[in-house]
Automatic annotation (TrEMBL):
<dbReference type="GO" id="GO:0015031">
    <property type="term" value="P:protein transport"/>
</dbReference>
<protein>
    <submittedName>
        <fullName>Peptidylprolyl isomerase</fullName>
    </submittedName>
</protein>
<dbReference type="GO" id="GO:0044183">
    <property type="term" value="F:protein folding chaperone"/>
</dbReference>
<dbReference type="GO" id="GO:0003755">
    <property type="term" value="F:peptidyl-prolyl cis-trans isomerase activity"/>
</dbReference>
<dbReference type="GO" id="GO:0043335">
    <property type="term" value="P:protein unfolding"/>
</dbReference>
<feature type="domain" description="Trigger factor ribosome-binding bacterial">
    <location>
        <begin position="1"/>
        <end position="143"/>
    </location>
</feature>
<dbReference type="GO" id="GO:0051083">
    <property type="term" value="P:'de novo' cotranslational protein folding"/>
</dbReference>
<dbReference type="InterPro" id="IPR005215">
    <property type="entry name" value="Trig_fac"/>
</dbReference>
<dbReference type="GO" id="GO:0043022">
    <property type="term" value="F:ribosome binding"/>
</dbReference>
<dbReference type="InterPro" id="IPR036611">
    <property type="entry name" value="Trigger_fac_ribosome-bd_sf"/>
</dbReference>
<dbReference type="InterPro" id="IPR037041">
    <property type="entry name" value="Trigger_fac_C_sf"/>
</dbReference>
<dbReference type="InterPro" id="IPR027304">
    <property type="entry name" value="Trigger_fact/SurA_dom_sf"/>
</dbReference>
<dbReference type="InterPro" id="IPR008881">
    <property type="entry name" value="Trigger_fac_ribosome-bd_bac"/>
</dbReference>
<dbReference type="Pfam" id="PF05697">
    <property type="entry name" value="Trigger_N"/>
</dbReference>
<keyword id="KW-0413">Isomerase</keyword>
Length: 440
């Protein structure tokens, strides 16, 4: 077998693969012998079918499959060995093949990745530091106090009560056990003052803001006219906020992590600013990507990519459709190439241990959100390893580690002009940027 590459221009090449009969004949004979041993053909005993008969029926198909497998492996090996940077996959050129010939020739078109440089030092963007105000810290304090509070039983319903009820929709036989937070209702007046055992009959339009909300809460299809519902009250409770003391501090951050209300508030402010910092980091990536797409220019082998889409995407059935699809994927394809170039220059790699540590950190943060701060590290490791058994989750975390490394490269090389903003200002900025991106 012989493979030669003919470069037609900077973005296109043709691989010519010459396959001699000796390259595949032995494999073909082995397969035909196996067919002969197992073939059940009327008039012949099993294993006694003449080879001439087997060849007449199967040889052409076996040669085709064997050569095709040989071509796929050899072309792939050649591309890897020669370190060819290609786009898409090789596209076979449709030539007439004389399968009886001693030598077979196959051509494959290649789309070559363009050559270009990326100078991050020429990129300049504005980045944001979100300052957390005292009133926002207070919202977090109130939220923690509510989350770690307790339920107090009430004799009758009041505005902030939570009712355990059996809800029966008119026309349905079964009642659904559920909870009703009176402060969430559009109008809770029908429930105020009611006691355990009382039945409240209302139309869904009187207590829910939208048909969608009524449908979700009642677990049944609700129309614009609403439905009549009977609520039988089983329990009446009120959530009482936890006191702002050491017990609450320990529940939120772990025993002894903070020892005063001032330290508690400072910790909340620090964590909030860190959380917003992560959002600001995401925007750094978005803004750098936008700048690079605007400034790093190179051509793509569009004619080849059109052919590749036609041969590889079953949903693309015409050249016009392939060209339309190529326009849609242009920006993502260009950034993939830019990203790969930056990673190559900076030796960015991701290993299994880094993915494992990312999974561990993600599980730890997730459990912390639910106040579980004292789970043994060994248990956390087991949960993380279990999550990584899912290939999709492993790939997601692997790309997250890669993205984090790219972010550090951007921070180290791009000129960042930091601007201090409030949270509301930050939200307005991001909303406007996303709007511009959608319109682009």
């Amino acid at each position: 077998m012989n493979i030669t590459k003919n470069t037609t221009d900077n973005l296109n090449a043709v691989l010519t693969v010459t396959v001699d009969k000796a390259d595949y004949q032995e494999k073909v004979v082995d397969v035909l012998n196996q067919y002969r041993k197992t073939a059940n053909i009327k008039g012949f005993r099993k294993g006694q079918v003449p080879m001439s008969f087997i060849k007449k029926q199967y040889e052409q198909a076996v040669i085709f499959d064997t050569v095709n497998d040989l071509l796929q492996k050899s072309v792939s090996d050649y591309i890897n060995t020669e370190k060819l940077s290609i786009l898409g996959n090789p596209v076979p050129v449709m030539n007439d093949i004389d399968w009886d010939a001693e030598q077979l020739n196959f051509d494959f078109e290649l789309g070559l990745a363009p050559e270009f440089d990326v100078d991050l030092s020429k990129v300049e963007i504005e980045t944001y530091k979100v300052k957390v105000a005292d009133d926002e810290v207070q919202k977090y304090v109130d939220n923690f106090a509510s989350r770690f509070g307790s339920l107090k039983s009430l004799a009758e319903a009041e505005a902030e009560a939570v009712l355990k009820v059996d809800a029966k929709v008119e026309g349905q036989e079964e009642a659904n056990a559920t909870f009703v937070r009176l402060e969430d209702l559009k109008d809770a007046s029908a429930f105020i003052g009611k006691k355990v055992g009382d039945v409240v009959e209302v139309n869904s339009n009187d207590i829910f803001d939208t048909v969608e909300e009524a449908t979700q809460e009642l677990k049944t299809e609700v129309t614009e006219a609403g439905v009549n519902v009977s609520y039988t009250i089983k329990e009446i409770n009120k959530a009482e906020k936890a006191e702002i003391n050491q017990e609450l501090f320990d529940k939120v951050y772990g025993e002894g992590s903070v020892d005063s209300e001032e330290a508690f508030r400072n910790k909340i402010k620090e964590e909030s600013e860190n959380m917003y910092s992560k959002e600001a980091d995401k925007q750094i990536i978005n803004d750098v990507v936008a700048k690079l797409l605007d400034t790093v220019k190179f051509d793509l082998p569009t004619e080849f990519l059109t052919k590749w889409l036609l041969t590889s995407n079953e949903n693309v059935t015409s050249e016009e459709q392939a060209k339309e699809e190529l326009v849609k994927m242009d920006k993502s394809l260009r950034y993939q190439l830019i990203e790969a170039k930056i990673a190559e220059v900076n030796n960015v790699e991701v290993n299994a241990e880094e993915v494992k540590q990312a999974a561990f950190a993600a599980i730890k943060d997730q459990l912390k959100m639910y106040g579980q701060t004292s789970i043994p590290e060994e248990t956390l490791q087991q949960i993380a390893m279990s999550a990584l058994q899912n290939q999709e989750e492993y790939n997601r975390l692997s790309y997250q580690v890669f993205t984090d490394k790219m972010l550090e490269i951007f921070k180290s090389n791009v000129k960042l002009n930091e601007k201090e903003v409030t949270f509301d200002e930050f939200v307005d900025i991001i909303t406007e940027k996303n709007k511009e991106l959608e319109e682009a």
